[in-house]
Fold this sequence. Notes:
The complex is a heterodimer of chains A (385) and B (289). Chain A folds into 2 domains: 41-155 and 289-369, Rossmann fold, CATH 3.40.50; 159-286 and 372-383, Rossmann fold (3-Layer(aba) Sandwich). Chain A is built from 13 helices and 15 strands. With 385 residues, chain A is of the alpha/beta class. Chain A has a 7-stranded mixed β-sheet, with helices on both faces. A 5-stranded parallel β-sheet of chain A has the order 2-1-3-4-5, with helices on both faces. In chain A, strands 11-12-13 form a 3-stranded antiparallel β-sheet, with helices on one face. Mean pLDDT of chain A is 87; it is low at 1-9 and 32-38. By secondary structure, chain B is mostly helical. Chain B has one domain (2-277): ABC transporter involved in vitamin B12 uptake, BtuC. Chain B starts with a helix and ends in a 12-residue tail after the last helix. The model of chain B has no long low-confidence stretch (mean pLDDT 86). Chain A binds chain B through residues 51-56, 58-59, 183, 209-212, 214-221, 223-224, 226-227, 240-241, 244-245, 248-249, 252-254, 267-269, 273-274, and chain B through 2, 5-6, 9-10, 12-13, 107-108, 111, 115-118, 120, 122, 126-130, 134, 136, 138, 210-212, 214-217, 220, 251-253, 255, 259-261, 263-265.
Amino acid sequence: MKTSFHLITGKQGATWRRGVATVLASAAMSLAAPMVAWAQSYTLGTLFPMSGPNAEAGAIYTNAVDLALKHIAQDHWLKGTISVKPTDSLGTPQGGAVGMSRLVNVEKVPYALVGFTGVAKASAPIGDRAQVMMVNGGAVGPDLAKLSKYFWNIIPLANQEVEFLIPWLGEQKIKKIAIIYVDDPLGQGILSELKAGLPGVGSELVSSYSVAPELQQFSPIIARLRNDKPDAIYIASPNITQIAHIIKQVRDGGLNTQIITYGAANFPSISKLPESDGLIFTSQAADWGSDEPTMKRFVDEWRKNYGTEPTTYGLNYYNGALLYGYLVRGLEQAGKPVTGTNLLAELERVGHYALAGGEARFSDSTVTTAMQINRISKGVTEKVK
Amino acid sequence: MLFLQLLASGIQTGILYALTAAGFALIFGATRIFHVAHGATFIIAGYTYYELHQVGVWWPLATLAAFAMAIAFGVFMALYVYRPIQRSEGSFFTVFVAAFGASISVQSLVQYFFGRGSVMVSTPLTMAQETLPGLYLAPILAVSIVVAIIVFTCVHLFLDRRNAGLGLRALSESPGLLESFGLDSKRLTILAFVIGSALVVPAAIFTAVSIGIQPASGHRVMLISLAATIVGGIGSLRGAVLAGLVLGVIENLVITMVDTQWSEAVSFLVLFAFIMFRPNGLFGTAVKK
């Protein structure tokens, strides 16, 4: 008869010891699992143009995200850490689709920050299918509203900017507007808003010129504009470089007509251009002198770390990353895994968060923000309205 | 007057195209190397001039530096990229991929060191003045015409009258026979790259001054150079110059007839038309089978 001693030694004993060890290890791991999960790394995907003509935007957006994550870590918001999974969208729809596929299938991010209208529209269906939460802080194409329940905009869209602008045009007695636009959702959206809204304030769209996004030489269009004699020229291009080219060539061509554009004028390559003096542009409201703590911290550290003035786009992506921090914290506290579906549920549950600039209320895939009209004067942006 | 205004713009654009196309055509015509990195030479020259201008270097010195950098890059490509490939009898495709890779590398380096946005050199030369009622011309137009005339005259005289120039023309026709006459085809290849790279410098500077440049500008430069070389006729320098000029003028005049978004596409429609109906180009010669 075998005794327990025989069970402990020999082959049977080895089997028994392995079994006990397995049970003990499983028990230990199940107790440790919550702690391990909280110490885990969370991932945040970014789909920004890191190369090509809009790479300047990608650099600013990335700096904003890095700053936000630094603040989240400094303030010990989370038990885990957030790491960024950057992907280059090239600023094109194709790049956006490929980039989002990578974020979804390879990096498996639950949350992604996206920018540029074409990129957003191409990537949204992919993110939606994978139930990844996407937040846009830079694209302003009108049809980004209600793109997907997982797609949220924390920036006013172009049609909202133009709606805000049109009454001001009436007040300023700017009667004849010409538009240079890229034939994409952004350009088409702005064109249709102007066509619809200008007659209501006694103004009219006298001419419209569609350009390819990569066009750099505008002298033929400027020659035509000179014939049109508009009171103002509106530039609707998603390409920051192109806007700068148009502004310079309009001024070099001897046209002193008022130039107007949308929030892209925030980017330094436009705002610092000598020929941009007098440029009018709409943007979301941002008070860089505000004493609100989160905004002040953002502004002070942006200036210190990056040596430039902050922009509304940087602010939006800073807030986009902060929002992720808030949502992850909520899920950590609830003991729920960080997935796109849970992030969305958490956002819908809470509905408002204190971001830089004040409290932001989220509903219907968008955030309500105030807007303003600005003028560039000697390289400095001044609020006009 | 709109027509005259567009014609003037077209001439200015055409001169830029002619200068870049001439450089590419010279290199390709003499050496049969598909120097896709020609656009990178353009970027290097433009950024060299811009950066030196920004730190206050006197413009002739900045121009000389731009020439030096462009030529250095061209010679580097010839010696350390194309020559090893040719020595190992690499295919045309190998050369193309190597040059394309170099072009992308240069773009990335420029982005890394000088930023990703567009840069422009501010100068009063680009400010248009009303020369005739309704006709606005900037001094840069006259400057670019004068420079183009000087450059092309010098290149023409060199190719026609100097031994090295004759050698370059002979290199394009028969490298083997060249060697038997005691001429060094390798040195002539370097010379082709020196002159071809130098030709792109005035275009790069005028572009930086008039419309600005960015790291990605080289690709369009390359496409236009290629189109002009084919339209002008492979191996014909004057053909490439004329084709560049014609493409620039057409690109500007066409908007009187079609929507502005088609203006750039017209260059390539002209290219396709030539490929279909006159594949030898304006001054190319047919090759007997």
